[in-house]
């Protein structure tokens, strides 16, 4: 479909990866939460039975890690901090008040999204390492019991941390109208790009001019 007013923000592979990640993450998070308090034990039915939840939680956890590795490879270069991010930090109040007067020279992701990106990546690494140490079926036998206990403690803390970050991520994604539909359809309007990610929009426009690509066709 060609649309002169739209530009590509997320490719199909990125969108498929992101939404598969969402499903896997919620299954892992719900089963994980079910072990925190007896009152939450019903959450383990997300996998059918509590026994299946115990069995499958680690496999889905590894899937979440691998899906995030793909998103890391695709997006990390857009999330490197740059001097212009200081402009976003200085104007964060205006950003939160939804004022779009000042040109903040924002690339594909703003400084807040970059912080979130690196925090998600750090926490998933912590969850993978501590999760492997505590994985009774395969690995925990190789470690002394106190190490496994510490791993479980840090695993739980990192899990809660990641869930809180994801709640924030969902809130912000819904707050910036047009970004969830970009994760569903792949496209944003030119007006959206100019308003929220002005430098990224300029870069995309430059590329279109120099490559002679029709608007809306740029991947
Ligand atoms: C219902 C749940 C979720 C919604 C609605 C959602 C929405 C979004 C949207 C709209 C974007 C694109 C932002 C933009 O283009 O500016 C995005 C990016 C992203 N999401 Fe989600 N997301 C959800 C859950 C998750 C989960 C569970 C994870 C990881 C565990 C995750 C990790 C990411 C990452 C890594 C990016 C790329 C951001 C970057 O590179 O800075 N998302 N999400």
TrEMBL record:
SUPFAM superfamilies: Transmembrane di-heme cytochromes. Keywords: Cell membrane, Electron transport, Heme, Iron, Membrane, Metal-binding, Plasmid, Transmembrane, Transmembrane helix, Transport. It is a multi-pass membrane protein. GO terms for molecular function: electron transfer activity; formate dehydrogenase (NAD+) activity; formate dehydrogenase (quinone) activity; metal ion binding. Pfam families: Ni_hydr_CYTB (PF01292). GO terms for biological process: anaerobic respiration; formate oxidation; respiratory electron transport chain. It is found in: Cell membrane. One of its GO terms (cellular component) is plasma membrane. Residues 14-186 form the Cytochrome b561 bacterial/Ni-hydrogenase domain. InterPro entries: Cyt_b561_bac/Ni-Hgenase, Di-haem_cyt_TM, FDH_cytochrome_b556_subunit, Formate_DH_gsu. Its cofactor is heme. The chain crosses the membrane at residues 16-37, 57-76, 115-138, 150-174. It comes from the Bacteria. NCBIfam families: formate-DH-gamm. Belongs to the formate dehydrogenase gamma subunit family. This is Formate dehydrogenase-N, cytochrome B556 (Gamma) subunit, nitrate-inducible. It comes from Cupriavidus taiwanensis. The gene is fdnI.
């Amino acid at each position: 479909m060609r649309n002169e007013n739209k530009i590509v923000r997320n490719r199909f592979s990125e969108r498929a990866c992101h939404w598969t990640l969402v499903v896997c993450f919620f299954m892992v998070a719900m089963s994980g939460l079910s072990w925190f308090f007896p009152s939450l034990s019903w959450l383990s039915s997300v996998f059918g039975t509590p026994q299946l939840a115990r069995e499958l939680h680690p496999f889905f956890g590894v899937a979440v890690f691998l899906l995030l590795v793909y998103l890391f490879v695709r997006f990390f270069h857009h999330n490197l901090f740059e001097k212009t991010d200081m402009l976003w930090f200085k104007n964060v109040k205006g950003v939160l008040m939804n004022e779009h007067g000042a040109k903040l020279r924002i690339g594909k992701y703003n400084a807040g999204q970059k912080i979130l990106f690196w925090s998600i990546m750090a926490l998933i690494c912590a969850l993978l390492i501590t999760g492997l140490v505590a994985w009774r079926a395969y690995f925990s036998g190789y470690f002394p019991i106190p190490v496994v206990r510490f791993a479980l403690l840090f695993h739980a803390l990192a899990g809660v941390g990641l869930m809180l970050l994801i709640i924030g991520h969902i809130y912000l994604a819904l707050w910036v109208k047009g970004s969830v539909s970009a994760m569903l359809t792949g496209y944003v309007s030119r007006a959206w790009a100019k308003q929220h990610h002005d430098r990224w929009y300029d870069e995309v426009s430059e590329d279109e001019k120099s490559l002679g690509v029709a608007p809306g066709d740029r991947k």
